[in-house]
Automatic annotation (TrEMBL):
It comes from Sedimentitalea nanhaiensis. Its cofactor is [4Fe-4S] cluster. InterPro entries: 4Fe4S-binding_SPASM_dom, Aldolase_TIM, Elp3/MiaA/NifB-like_rSAM, MoaA_NifB_PqqE_Fe-S-bd_CS, PQQ_synth_PqqE_bac, PqqE-like, Radical_SAM_PqqE_MftC-like, rSAM. Pathway: Cofactor biosynthesis; pyrroloquinoline quinone biosynthesis. [4Fe-4S] cluster binds at residues 18, 22, 25. Signal peptide: none annotated. Its EC number is 1.21.98.4. This is PqqA peptide cyclase. The lineage of its organism: Bacteria, Pseudomonadati, Pseudomonadota, Alphaproteobacteria, Rhodobacterales. GO terms for biological process: molybdopterin cofactor biosynthetic process; pyrroloquinoline quinone biosynthetic process. Residues 4-220 form the Radical SAM core domain. Binds 1 [4Fe-4S] cluster. The cluster is coordinated with 3 cysteines and an exchangeable S-adenosyl-L-methionine. Catalyzes the cross-linking of a glutamate residue and a tyrosine residue in the PqqA protein as part of the biosynthesis of pyrroloquinoline quinone (PQQ).
């Protein structure tokens, strides 16, 4: 077996069920059905395998992970395996009792998503009336219990003006960190580029606000920033570099190098039911396909940033250029960069575009689990 350095983090998409219908959902257009989800014992085994492989941090995500009735058991199993556990949640489905149980079994950290800074915006974007009020209640319980909190503000053309308030809210909630995440267009979100693409001016202003806030809040609040990359000149280092830092396990046990990897048609994936996590990480062809720099063509191959951003996002290159091995078109050196910028401005100019909500088929949509 080759000796690829181990991943640091694993994202476990416990379920695709979710009570919200966010138009920017990055989960695939075809969601995993509840009856294909891994059971408690299999997930617990996957967590032990991840720890043995060298994974340190486990991000429990979805869909809405609180839609899993066995969430407390899953967190217990992950902690017993020695993993640092982070729950990525909208808050819907979390009661005070359930949060206290999660605390008792050792949940280390909560990441709470924010669809807007008031009920009108948040409930409209999440497509869930009353969601904002429930989230604010959950935020209070999180503070009372003392979970380290990251607020994840998902921003786009409709709510970027709320960024200053989102920063204030992070402070009020006692968050240690806020992720200012401009929407990335993967999965369902691709259907909503007309409705959600920020304008160039908004993108620039957000960058200024973040820079000022970082200086002002230094030592009090860490600000992670995902800019509106269609308006940028260099791409993000997606997944910290393909096959180097993290891996995703989706609800049916398929193991992916990133959450959108199934949009790349020639890749073949393995499932945890068929092979060990270590074997998959070391030898699965999908992980090998874009690991390192050998796969690159020019301009990336001869670029001095190739070990900085690893050519950007493979899934974005696939979605926009039709070639996952191409330079991310966000990059100013890509022959498609100019066209992408024009496309971004065209999307951003669609003032009347409607939101296309993520509607779940009946068997996938989740009612909040009250326990
Ligand atoms: Fe990154 Fe490739 Fe652009 Fe260089 S050419 S900056 S490696 S995406
Ligand atoms: Fe797949 Fe960026 S989302 S590489």
């Amino acid at each position: 077996m080759s000796t690829v350095a181990p991943p640091i983090a694993m994202l476990a998409e416990l379920t695709h069920r979710c009570p919200l219908s966010c138009p920017y959902c990055s989960n695939p257009v075809e969601l995993a059905r509840q009856n294909s989800e891994l059971d408690t014992a299999t997930w617990s085994d996957v967590f032990r395998q991840a720890a043995d492989l060298g994974v340190l941090q486990l991000h429990l995500s979805g869909g809405e992970p609180a839609s899993r009735r066995d969430l407390v058991d899953l967190v217990r199993a992950a902690r017993e395996a020695g993993l640092y556990t982070n729950l990525i949640t909208s808050g819907i489905g979390l009661t005070e009792k359930r949060l206290r149980e999660l605390d008792a079994v050792g949940l280390d950290h909560v990441q709470l998503s924010l669809q807007g800074t008031d009920a009108t915006m948040a409930d409209e974007i999440g497509g869930y009336r009353g969601g904002f009020a429930r989230k604010m209640q959950v935020a209070e319980w999180i503070k009372e219990i003392g979970f380290p909190l990251t607020l994840n503000a998902v921003l786009h053309r409709r709510n970027l003006h709320q960024l200053p308030r989102a920063l204030e809210m992070a402070e009020e909630m006692g968050a240690r960190r806020i992720e200012v995440a401009t929407v990335q267009f993967h999965g369902w979100a691709l259907k909503n580029r007309d409705a959600l693409m920020p304008t160039r001016e908004q993108a620039k202003k957000a960058t200024q606000i973040v820079a000022e806030a970082r200086a002002r809040l230094k030592g009090r609040l860490v600000i992670d920033y995902v800019p509106a990359d269609y308006h940028e000149d260099f791409p993000k280092r997606c997944m910290g570099g393909w096959g180097t830092t993290g891996l995703n396990v989706v609800p049916d046990g398929t193991v992916l190098p990133c959450h959108a990897a199934q949009t790349i048609p020639h890749l073949r994936f393995d499932r945890v039911q068929d092979r060990s996590l270590a074997e998959i990480w070391q030898t699965n062809m999908a992980f090998d396909a874009y690991r390192g720099t050998e796969w690159m063509a020019d301009p990336c191959r001869s670029c001095d940033r190739k070990t900085v951003d690893f050519g950007g996002c493979r899934c974005q290159a696939m979605a926009i250029v039709g070639d996952a091995g191409a330079t991310d078109p966000v990059c100013v050196k890509s022959p498609h960069h100019g066209a992408l910028q024009t496309q971004a401005d065209q999307h951003a100019a669609q003032a009347d575009a409607h939101l296309t909500y993520r509607k779940m088929p009946a068997k996938i949509a989740a009612e909040p689990v009250e326990m």
